[in-house]
Amino acid sequence: MRDCRKRLADQGSKGRGGDGKQRGGSASAMPSKLAFALGGESRLKDWHIDSGSEWHITYDASELKNVRAVKTEELFNIIGYDGSRHQPTHVGLCTLKSNVIEGLEIDLLNVYVVPKATVKLISAGILDDRGAKVVLGDGKALVQHQGRTILQGEKVGNLYAIRYNAAGRSVSDSRSCAATGSVDSAAALWHRRLGHLGFGSLERMCRENMVTGMELDRGSLAAASSRICEPCIYAKQSRGPFPATGHKAVKPLGLVHMDVCGPMPETSLGGSRYVTTVLDDCTGLSAVAFTETKDAIGKKVRAIFEALENIAGRRVKEVRTDRGREFVNQTMGDYFSNKGIIHGTTVGYTPEQNGAAERLNRTLLEKTRAMLVESELPQQLWAEALATANYLRNISPVAGAKVTPHEAFMGTKPDISHLRVFGCAAYAHVPKEKRNKLEPVSRKGIFVGYEHGGHYRILFDDGSITKHSAVRFDETAIGNSRMDSDDDEEEADDGA
Q1: pLDDT, tens digit, for every residue of 138-168?
Q2: Which of 58, 86, 308, 362 has a CA 20 to 30 Å removed from the CA of 23?
Q3: Which structural domain range is residue 450 located in?
Q4: Separation CA 69–CA 435 (nearest Å)
């Protein structure tokens, strides 16, 4: 997987009529995208909302963060009013300050740098595709999200200029959350480290001292929570709660919920298409296992049960699943019978009766989507992201519990000082046995998860994932960058 950061289905191109394919070649052979407002003699400093542009575009790369060069196979032409063709050189994330709500910041993903452009464009189409509503009328363009206006543009010709007040409040600086010294940026960083955990839960972690190793001023959370997190918008959905699932177990492993998700749209790097989720009803601790087929699920379930029983010093007493054949079969029936486990199933075609499992699946998938969106990693990394999401969920607050699932099951308060942003740049130490005296002592990769014993899972450009303990991270780097040469470390399976 040489280009391990290129998303398989690019968010921007799929959103506005693109086919999602990346192509190289001559300028005439490249796919063309419309940005009608390009052209002109002088540059306009304001950002403009444009209903004709298929991309967010700027001429000023200094306003972006997480910037990377556009690869040859990603190049395309952008057509201006005069028919001229322009090619982007870089792409990154731009943070705009709202000119409507004080303190609110809006992140625009996939903003392309076109050096010959004379105007900075916000694509109304992309905003619409990504959950915002653009209302045009009375000489204004209102960008609305979740019922509130977050940006306002004034009509200038065929565009709508984003204007700011006399104090000069304009585009925010390009410093990332991790690089700033402000307390609200610290809160945003922990939000990302914890798999885009809701700010309400983040505030609760601080207020109730649910973890150790997190240095965060509680007063910063209000400012951070007012900022729109674009990956969260793309990844999370608003829907009603799942119904309660009956009595609550009073002891660990007294009741275990299980479910299966799949087949997933992409096969993971480890060859998996399915994920089995296991939830302890009493403590809220969850576990996941990845398989290529449903036939292999039984073996994974037995391994999870054995591991949980060894930790808890107790036996699983009751299991609740749907009526899927991966759970209702002779092999699983014999296993449950031999272990003295009561197996309860839902009524046919009513998966909502297994509400605890469905709720867990939704939480894990939302975290997974958010991390993949922010990291721009390909969908083959879904298993790594989901395993990380499960790890983070266990050390985060859950509804109705005074402690984290980790503490409830393990008996110890989790230390989260080791957490880093999924998908950030990672520099893994190369042992001297694997290099000569002149070769680099570190190899650059991408952080994609955690291993037992304080190890990190690092993805390299040859597609291998290996575990390392001596790693330095750059949490401001979320984008494609040059990778080092291959090494001979053993390729890892999907995380669990």
Answers
A1: 788 889 887 778 888 888 878 888 887 543 3
A2: 58
A3: 423-496
A4: 29
